[in-house]
Amino acid sequence: MKLSIGIVGLPNVGKSTLFKALTKQEVNIANYPFATIDPNVGVVSVPDERLIKLGELSDSKKVIPAVVEFHDIAGLVRGASKGEGLGNQFLTHIREVDAICTVLRCFESSDITHVENTVHPIRDLEIVNTELIFKDLDTVEKRLSSAAKEARSGEKDAIAECKELEIIKSGLERGELVRQITTDTKYHKQLNLLTAKQQLFLLNGTESDVSDELKVMIKKLDADYVIYNLSLSDIDLSKLIQKAYEVLDLISFFTTGEDESRAWTIHSGAKAPEAAGVIHTDFEEKFIRAEVIQWDKLLESSGWSAAKQKGWLRLEGKEYVIQDGDVMVIRHG
């Protein structure tokens, strides 16, 4: 499965700098708003020491990590939901990604302008989320208008949809994000609402730049954060990528052999046939069973043959729930 994350935030907060550090690509970094007009897209390998060790164990010709697709999206400004700045483009591009990484500038610098003239990350957070809420409210109201017409004819599905959308509309009007509103997700998922997406915050600065008030506010949003000083020349962003996995409730499982060792991404709680389908779409329907062992036990046994002799290799059926770090051989018809 492909995981895509949109890097968003106000202009000049470090979005393109982050993208460059992640992907090692040259992008247009400038000290003025809207230096990024079309979203730059880069594919980043997910760092995983387990995969490297499995590749060494199997003497694999290729080692293929899981990947995350990062989209560097044009800067948002106050009023974007009404078309200010590059608002329409910005919000359309966010709709295309799985999750949002919101960059907040926490450091002071007279050399870098701020679109709001002062550095105030809590205000900036509120601007970003308010614009997302306004856009979702517009989307919900339009769909609610159509669903209401269908509901008047007595269509049960439309009646149920109206009830859900009314709950979401009320929550958005109170300033809540969709992911904080308790509803049946059947209908709003079809709308791909922006505030339903999981959100991770990158706080651009040092620990001393980040207030406790900001940390508490982020936690109240059912979100998480990482702190990075993006002005440094050499940044280890593995924590950000791993945190993105946690936020989206994703895990990795592995296949390994002489030809290749590979990491695969799947949602936590997925069963064995779904994992087989990630490897190849035909494998899910034709799934018979899986041979499974945890990666560290396979390393400890020094290979598949020894693992079988020790009784560490398990045969699992269709109801088996994949665990992070499983190494699998899929048997299919």
How would you portray this structure in words?
This protein has 333 residues and is α/β, with parallel strands linked by helices. The protein has two domains: 3-247, P-loop containing nucleotide triphosphate hydrolases (Rossmann fold); 269-332, Ubiquitin-like (UB roll), CATH 3.10.20. The protein has twelve helices and twelve strands. The protein has helices at 15-23, 49-58, 87-95, 121-151, 156-173, 185-191, 212-220, 238-247, 272-279, 281-285, 295-301, 304-310, and strands spanning 3-8, 40-45, 62-64, 67-72, 99-105, 198-204, 224-228, 250-256, 260-267, 287-294, 314-316, 326-332. The chain has a six-stranded mixed β-sheet with strand order 2-4-1-5-6-7, with helices on both faces. It has a three-stranded mixed β-sheet with strand order 3-9-8, sandwiched between helices. β8 (250-256) and β9 (260-267) form a beta hairpin. α2 (49-58) runs parallel beside α11 (295-301), α4 (121-151) runs antiparallel to α5 and α5 (156-173) packs across α6. The longest helix is centred in the middle third of the chain and has 31 residues, at 121-151. The protein starts with a strand and ends with a strand. Mean pLDDT is 87; it is low at 27-37.
